[in-house]
Amino acid sequence: MMATMAGSAESERRALAGSFPGGLLRLAGRIFGALGLIAALTFFFARFVTVNQTTAGFFYLVAILLIATAGGLVESTIASVVAMLCFNYFFLPPVGAFTVNDPRNWVALFAFLATSLTASQLSARAKRRTKEAVDRQREIERLYSLSRALLLTDAERPIAKQIVQQIAQAFEFPAVALYDRSSGEIYRAGFEDMPEIDADLKQAAIRTEVFPDTGGLVITPIRLGRQPIGSLAIRGASLSNAALQSLLNLVAIWLERALSVEAVNRAEVAQRSEELKSTLLDAIAHEFKTPLTSIKAVTTDLLSEPAAELRQHHRELISIADEGADRMSKLVNEAIQLARIEGGKFQLNRGVHFASSLISAALRQMKSLADEREISISIAADLPPVWVDAELIDLVIAHLIDNALKYSPASTPIVVGARQGEDCVVIYVTDRGAGIAEEEQSRIFDKFYRGKKERHLKGSGMGLAIAREIIRAHGQDIAVASKPGQGSEFSFSLPLVPRGAGA
């Protein structure tokens, strides 16, 4: 019992010392008040009303219970010792001395002291538990109020800054600071007089350690799982460990939510930007098609005239205009294709096809460009059919053949083939050009990118980007294998026909 009393007294002393010197002054006042009550009872019974030992002891116990209820364990313990001395001096024979003649009175005296100390302890414990229950209820109410306030945060303002303000308001803390490790920013409400708090906050987040409570200041890391995501500093904190941990968990959840909201916003902005670019590109491309069609019609009509009716010089100029119209028309068509792909405005019309038929169709499209080049066909035997949009795959193969024709010498052959892959059919186009440097291989599929050494060649830089998007729409991907001076191989896989498809 004495050990328990000592522990309770120590915890009460620490609580009072936390508000030094005001707390110690209040404690001293309560001790003097308790001693005054014992002195008043003693004077009253000793001078005015004669009572026996039992009555005096009973009133002393009542007084000690009142002191323990109104004050605390420290005051009631001191009052118990003083009441025992007064009881001995004024009511136990010999009266007026601190000695005891009858041994039975020694028993009564120590029984009185034990009873008064026990009563003080029980009363103080009940009071402390009541106070703790009230404090826990208040903490729960404040945590609930904080969670409700956080639900109403403005997404247009930094959420971390709003968290700091809401914590200070809900718990009535004089100063709160929050370090968000993801952004490296420190948000504060108060702490203007402590610029050094920034270093402590960063240190707490890095080392994931709790700085000791000094003068009502607590600095503690914020963790999401085991990963530290920031730290929190509070001045004037009187929270229990459970409430502090709940507060940290709440802050961690909302910091993570802030990151999620920011990522979603960035994705939405990027998507809207891409949709806007695709729409503008589609609109502009269509505006170009009308005059290009007219120009092409005029040049075709002029070139169809008999040679005698056109001078050679004029025919050459018209041929140049006709070739330029063809090139411009091709660029416009590619821009329209890319805009539709990026805008999600195209759908796959899948069907059952064979790699050989897809390659043959693409070569027919490229006949005018490929007539003067050696193109070898290498298709493995017994390839299974594939489940693709034939028109779009023909376009991909045509882009890859056109790319090989541009970037390889006219005297070198080009190989177009198909082979069996793992649960797929792989179509490839190989050339013996200058090859592609390793650092450029990851960029050649980007829109409008042109190789550093080949920027003088004609082209829009959209062909490979279109090809990649078409293959990805089929759930596959396109790849390049190349070494400088040894040529390149572009390949892509096509899905096999699933069971029940095409039936």
Please provide a written account of the structure.
The protein is of the alpha+beta class and 503 residues long. It has 4 domains: 2-138, no CATH class; 153-238, GAF domain (Beta-Lactamase), CATH 3.30.450; 266-342, Helix Hairpins (Orthogonal Bundle); 351-495, 2-Layer Sandwich (Heat Shock Protein 90), CATH 3.30.565. 58% of the residues lie in helices and 14% in strands. Strands 2-1-5-4-3 form a 5-stranded antiparallel β-sheet, sandwiched between helices. Strands 7-9-10-12-11 form a 5-stranded mixed β-sheet. The model is unreliable at 1-20 (pLDDT under 50).
Write down the secondary-structure element order. HHHHHHEEHEEEHHEHHEEHEEHHEE
- Kindly identify the CATH topology of the largest domain: Heat Shock Protein 90
The number of strands is 12
Q: Distance between termini?
A: 88 Å
The CATH architecture term of the largest domain is 2-Layer Sandwich
Report the sheet with the most strands, covering strand number, pairing sense and barrel closure.
5 strands, antiparallel
Measured by DSSP, the beta-strand proportion falls in 5-15%
